[in-house]
Amino acid sequence: MGIITPENLKDKEAYFDILIVGSGAGGGTCAGFLAESGLNVAIIEEGDYIPPDKLPTSVGEAFLKLYRNAGAHFILGIPGIAFAEGRCVGGSTVINGGMCWRTTEKILEKWQLEEGIEKIEPSFMEKYFERIEKRINVEEQPPHTWSRAGIIFKNAAESLGWKIVTDRRNQKGCKGLSLCMAGCPTGAKQSVLHTYIQDFLKKDGTIFAGFRAERIIFKGNKAVGVLCKGREKEIRLKAKTLVLACGADETPSLLMRSGFKSSSGMLGKNLYVHPNVKVVGVFDEEIFQWRGAHQSHQVHEFRDEGIVLATAGVPPSMIAMSVEETGKKLGEFMESIKNMLFAGALIEDTGTGMVKNIFGGKPVLLYNINDNDFYRAKRSVSLLSKLLFEGGAKEIILPFRNLKKIKSPEQIPLIFDRGIKKTDTEMMTVHIMGTARMSGSPKRGVVDSWGRVYGTENVFICDASIFPSPIGLNPMLSIMAFSARTAEYIAENKNRL
Amino acid sequence: MSIVNTLNPYPEVKEYEEEVFNFIMKLVSFYPLLVRIAIFTGVLFLEVYPILSLKSLKPFSFMKHEKKVRIIEEMLEKKPGIRRNLARALKALVQIALYEHPWYMKKAGYSWAL
Question: What angle do CA A378, A380, A381 make, to 5 degrees?
Answer without folding.
Answer: 65
